[in-house]
Amino acid sequence: MIVEQRIYSLKAGKVREFLAVYEAEGLVVQAEALGRLLGYFTTETGELNQVVQLWGFDSFEERLRRRAALSAQQAWHAFLQKAGPLVLAQKSELLLPAPFSPIR
């Protein structure tokens, strides 16, 4: 299994608005396409105004296939039109579990 960690840095004061739009319009589309949402978080300390998503995939190839399917959906593009202006930057990292990790 691999875990994709996506961190979105949002405009100051826009976390609630982003979460509301995501929950109402983005979550269902993304969850159907990507499959395994492991967690969704906001930052409380350190760098603020961020949301962090963790998605699980069986392989890098599965991730590529699922992300391509997401990108092909009109509903996803409609969501991005609303949420995109709230985002300043995004970062994506692929994480591999250690042999003793509870998430394997």
UniProtKB/TrEMBL annotation:
Residues 4-102 form the NIPSNAP domain. It comes from the Bacteria. Signal peptide: none annotated. SUPFAM superfamilies: Dimeric alpha+beta barrel. It holds the Pfam family NIPSNAP. Belongs to the NipSnap family. This is NIPSNAP family protein.
